Every structure is written in structure tokens, then in C-alpha cells.
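Researcher: Re-running this chain for the archive, since the previous output was lost when a drive failed. Same request as before.
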Amino acid sequence: MCFPQRTQEELHSLQSQADTSRRRLARAERLTGALAEESVRWLQRSDELTAALRSLVGDVFLAAACISYLGPFTGPYREALLRGWAARCREAGIPTSADGGGGGGGSFSLPATLVSPVEIREWGMQVCGWMGAGPWWGLCWLESACVTGRADSFRLSLVLLLPLLVHPPVSAPCSVGPP
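Model: Regenerated C-alpha cells:
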């Protein structure tokens, strides 16, 4: 092998390595940019979780009050009671998401406290499948579904919780299971 040919091969090899390094560098830059964007999202989520943790005691108190007392009442009366309870929490210095302490934008939600958005979507699909869309599908129904959906068994739901529901013939079958 002569000297110029070996030099040509080394040149070709070095150019190939340089191209590979440039491609790797470009991918690394894209990855670094994506991770920087992800870092912003993580910091935002961390702030949301910190605020939710701050209001955890108050939100659990309001959820327990809702489960214990709101069942037989209509939506507007439920809202009025909840506003009163949230005001009492504020007076006692107990932070809740109702006063903006939980990152929820200043509103307490029983479904958001007790169940995940995925469960709520599943219930919505089941309701549409069993009952069709109707005027009863709303916050009042969703709160009743949270109460009955967390019961240990179908029998416990019917015996203990059915009397607590607003319009049980419609909301109970959807919350507890298909007829």
C-alpha cells in the first residue's frame, strides 16, 4: 500500500468520523432542548403539587363533609353548603383549594379530590352506554357517583348509600353498575 492511498483512507475515515460526530452533536442539542422544555413542565407540576399538598387537610375535610351530608340535596343547595364550609375553613386558618390554596384555581371539587380524570371519563362512557345522554349528567350526578363508586360492594351501595342520592333511579344504576 502506498503512502498517498493510506493518507486518502485516513482522510476518508476522519471525514466519516467527523460526520458521525456532527450528527451526534445535533441529536444531543435536540435532546438538551427537549429536556429543557420538560424541566419547565416539571417545575410547574412541582409547584402544583406543593400547592395541593398545602390544601390537602382542608380538601379532605371538605370531601368528608360532602360525603357525609350532601347526598340528599340538590346541586344549588350543595354549592351553598360547600361555600359555607369553605368559609369556615378560611376562618379557622385551614387552607383549601376553595380559597386558592390548592392550585385548583380557587374552587373545591369533590370529584377532583376523590377520583382521577380517567375514572370520570370511564364513568361518562358507561353512563352514555347505559342511559344515554340526559339532563341529569352534571356535577350533582358526578358527586353522587363518587360517593357510590367508592363503596366496597354493590350491596353496601344499595343499602347504605341509595337513600343519600338525588334522583336515585337515574344516578344509582350509573354509579353502582349496570342493571
